[in-house]
Amino acid sequence: MSAPRTSSLALKEWAITELALDRGEQIVLLRKGGIREEDSEFRLRGSEFLLYPTYEHQREELVKPAWRDELRGLAAEPRNAVEIRFSHWARVDQVVEVTEKRAIAAMAPCYIWTPDYAEARLHWKPSSPLLVLLVRAHRLEKEQTVPLQAAYAGCTSWVNLATPVSLGASSPVLSDAEFRGRAVSCLELLRLP
User: Which has the closest alpha carbon to 173: 138, 135, 143, 142?
Assistant: First the structure.
């Protein structure tokens, strides 16, 4: 599958999660929706999107101890108040609906958050399933920036950028074989007996 040439669609995700995706340590995203989502539910608006790094809500106690120093380092970095930096885009490989706590706990090796935090995502709005997105991250050859706009603020998952981002010569973070191996492992952990 060829890479898109540009993208205007961006998914907000914690900066620490984007770092884990960049290092190939994580290939899953957990979604139920932001407070200001339409109908308060997450809807997949595209299978390919930019990763918009966010810093709100990420706290040390919500990530596994091995990632807390990384989180402190990200929090200490100065942030640009007038531009958004994009360094990655992702392609959705699979979407799995999860309704059982045991499934989220079982797949703890697939994410950097604490199992308690992942389970809390499941329990928010208990009548809706938690969506587990298996995504393949791609690193841009050169970071791109776009002007920050007030319309991008708030607790929403998706942002339609006024300025498209050129994806140029991006490359997948994991090889085909590495990604497929991790995807199979995570899906096996999700399957309950």
Answer: 138
Point out which residues pair with 133 in neighbouring strands: 29, 95
Q: Above 90 in pLDDT, residue 13?
A: yes
The token pair at 85 is: 């930096």
CATH number reported for the structural domain that contains residue 123 in this entry: 2.30.130.30
What pTM does this model have? 0.91
Look-up: residue for tokens 């991006």?
Answer: 170
Residue 109 vs residues 26, 143, 149: alpha-carbon distances, Å: 9, 29, 36
User: Cα separation of 64 and 190, whole Å?
Assistant: 20
| Count of all residues that appear for the chain in the document | 193
Tokens 């914690």 belong to residue: 14
Across the chain, mean pLDDT equals 89
In a domain, 118, yes or no: yes
